[in-house]
Amino acid sequence: MARTGGYGAKDAxxxxxxxxxxxxxxxxxxxxxxxxxxxxxxxxxxxxxKISGDxxxxxxxxxTNSHPGLEFYENGTRKWITYSNYTNDNLTFKxxxxxxxxxxxxxxxxxxxxxxxxxLDVAGNIGVDQYIYHNGDADTYINFTDDEDKVIFxxxxxxxxxxxEKGSAxxxxxxxxxxxxxxxxxxxxxxxEGNPLFKCDASTGRVGINGVGSPSVELEVDGTIKGDxxxxxxxxxxxxxxxxxxxxxxxxxxxxxxxxxxxxxxxxYFEITLADGTTDGQHLQLAxxxxxxxxxxxxxxxxxxxxxxTVSFSGAALNGQTVSFPNVGxxxxxxxxxxxxxxxxxxxxxxxxxxxxxxxxxxTANDMGFVMYSAIExxxxxxxxxxxxxxxxxxxxxxxxxxxxxxTSGNQTITExxxxxxxxxxxxxxxxxxxxxxxxxxxxxxxxxAATQGAHFVWDDTSxxxxxxxxxxxxx
Length: 476
Prior knowledge:
- By secondary structure, this protein is mainly beta.
- It has six domains: 1-31, no CATH class; 69-122, no CATH class; 131-175, no CATH class; 184-221, no CATH class; 235-301 and 434-473, Jelly Rolls, CATH 2.60.120; 308-432, no CATH class.
- The chain has one helix and 39 strands.
- The strands form nine sheets. Strands 4-5-6-7-8-9 form a six-stranded mixed β-sheet, with no helix packed on it.
- A hairpin with a 7-residue loop joins β13 (158-164) and β14 (172-175).
- The mean pLDDT is 87.
């Protein structure tokens, strides 16, 4: 571009050291070592200051014990300052009045502090969107996942552990979340048997405690294990060769030998009566450790039998004769009346306590047995008589019936005013006695096939019974 005229000043060699050109350009100096010294302030009205050349710099040379730096203004208001602090030679960044960040001469950066101890020292909180990486190792990082309540720690692309606050409890801290061969080890101080204090071996699925670094079984402890109820030395009990036994829990685990037990007459099980517990929440586990030669059970409730009676015939009865059955307690009597004018098998219910039974044509004892069975069945179904028939009628001259509820008050006298008729009164009724376990018929420890099972109970002071946590309850 052609220049217009201007003016300037030359040195002794004839070189311009000052030129003011007609287009507004001013040139100061001729060589790189020329110095321009200004006493006072320089104000740049334009929007930029350009310095060109190789390795160009702006040098700010302040007096001793001063703070050389740069200030940044907006419309006359100072916003930021960066300066060299002569008290510690830090390069400091501050707002108009507050130090924000300092860089020391040895390359440490402090945010919120002018005396950083580390390469980056933050005196305050740090926010991270998702990842914190280990430099040079992209597979090692902390991941604050998109799920804002989950943090994953990975080393060498193996998930060492995960912290997860779920939408609802329980929340989780998971070791080896990736299912790798990552052992979990807790070191001790060597005050007991040594290190490791605790080790989970991922490759074998085993746990070692108190110096067991290579556990040989699922749980191996070099030392003593103690527990209030669950973990303790077991008690071994030989049930002997009798038909029953009583067992008092002395520990929380009893191993039972049942290879010689026998059965009492009419019994299907060798019966163990379990003593009461001593402490609320006390646990008891029972297991037969030998092949049982007979079924074994823990006794449930005892007694509670319903009284039974019978009516038997040796021939036909006569018209108008009766058989009477009192209920439990004897407050009401239920009567069957024979009627020769009605054919056998015809019945009527005059009221709630009476049944009229036709016996026309019933000439044998078995005929009368059928009519008696059917008459009581009619009273039960049509008038809610408080009895049950024992078994189904399959022929025969004898009918057996039972009171509707258990107890000794069911032991009542059956009366008859009937030819060729014999009765035995209600008997055998017993009161129900609750057993020490919360089961009517008991819990099976060994069945008829000699298959053994265990049982787990916990004592409840309120009910004063062993509550069943695990075990096979009998239903009859």
